[in-house]
Cytidine deaminase (Rhodospirillum centenum), 136 residues
Amino acid sequence: MPTPADLFEAAAAARARSYSPYSRFKVGAAIRAEDGTVHAGCNVENAAYPQGQCAEATAIGAMVMAGAKRIVEIAVVGGDAGSGLLCTPCGGCRQRIREFAGPDTPIHVFDAGGAGRSFTLGELLPHSFGPDNLGF
Ligand SMILES: O=c1ccn([C@H]2C[C@H](O)[C@@H](CO)O2)c(=O)[nH]1
Ligand SMILES: [Zn+2]
């Protein structure tokens, strides 16, 4: 499942905007919405550590602000090039993505050098709780 280069580039550009003075772990995310538009975000940390926000949450906020409601695919770029560690979305962000995506939605994760792999949301968040549980 190769990632479209444009989505990786958008996520990498967002990563460059990361505000992460505490962890020094820069993350960028880029979403392709169902209307074809791309929405990106970076992690935004806070001196009150728990108030920090993940890149995926910033990107989702940008998507919603632009009027889109459905994630077709999402790319996340985090960590250092060649680290060999993929920056998979945290548990909270898997649930945030779930709100606007289904089990087959691709989630592409990369290190800063562009090495990575793709998962589906269903692989990362199986048996998930979502809007359908509430009748939506
Ligand atoms: O998928 C992830 C994982 C971590 N972070 C951020 C949160 C925090 O600012 C920093 C270190 O955890 O990376 C993200 O934005 N997305
Ligand atoms: Zn997260």
